[in-house]
Description:
Blueprint: H1 3-12, E1 16-20, H2 26-34, E2 39-41, H3 56-65, H4 70-83, H5 100-113, H6 118-133, E3 139-142, H7 151-157, E4 162-167, H8 170-177, H9 187-207, E5 213-217, H10 218-224, H11 226-237, H12 243-252, H13 262-266, H14 269-288
Parallel strand pairs: 1-3, 1-4, 2-3, 4-5
Helix pairs in contact: 3-4, 3-6, 3-7, 4-5, 5-6, 8-9, 9-14, 10-11
Amino acid sequence: MSPMSTESEAVRERPILVGGTGRSGSTIVGHLLDHHRALALTRPMEVRFLAGRFGLADALHAQRIDPSSGPAAAQLAAQRIHDRWYLRAEDVGLHTSIAREELTNMTDTYLAQFPIDALMATRELARVIMARVAPGPARWVDTTPANSRQADRMESIYPQAQVVTVLRDGRDVAASFVQQSFGPDDVFVALQQWERRMLRIHVATMAARPSGVLTVDLMDLVSRDRASSVQAICDFLEVDLDPQMLEWFDHNVVATSAHPGRWRSQFDEETARAVDRAYAEAVDRLSARGVHIPSE
């Protein structure tokens, strides 16, 4: 193996995993990093199969908790790769980078090897899929929101991974979800989901290595402290500040990109007050658990 190949493989073993609660700004950070000459977004930009619910990280965790349940968890992960994450939309999914037959061969090998060496099987499946999803020499960036909630479990697959967690006011997260075709369509249900995910992010972050996770407040990034926030991300990832990043950022991300306070204008006055009360209660519960709360 040539020194160049060894260096390239080492870079690929240090992925950048951007996440959050969903609707929290991870896409903005993903595109920002994609404009760095040494970094590149995956295709699709949310691979899902690693950190998504019942994905590879969960299957490996199930094996460690109860080896008798591991193979079934691996089977479920493989099934979801094909049925849920392969073709999510016409231009979204693993199908944009991998042929179905090739992927089937990959997951068949994974399932055969998993009972023998679950960690090796998981790392190898991740490696071969990511070689198609992010084929270039650049360090790859994935923006699956669940990355942050799985920061601790993802370290088993990629011990040198770095996780960038983007946090946003839960009221705005909930208001954003109800306008999407996915996720909760009730603002109070969406707010409950935000609370659960914030707690899971906290637990995962506490269990991960301290140097492996950076938390970014969306309002700091897009409005209050733009330059320092971008620099902090670059410092964390140990990359230079690329002028192309700043050019894209200045032209495409403005102070209103985070739509702060949308929960006030999106609902009638009575509903907005109820959302505010529910959020205050959620913040009290999270704060009591030591969870970092994003600023308004």
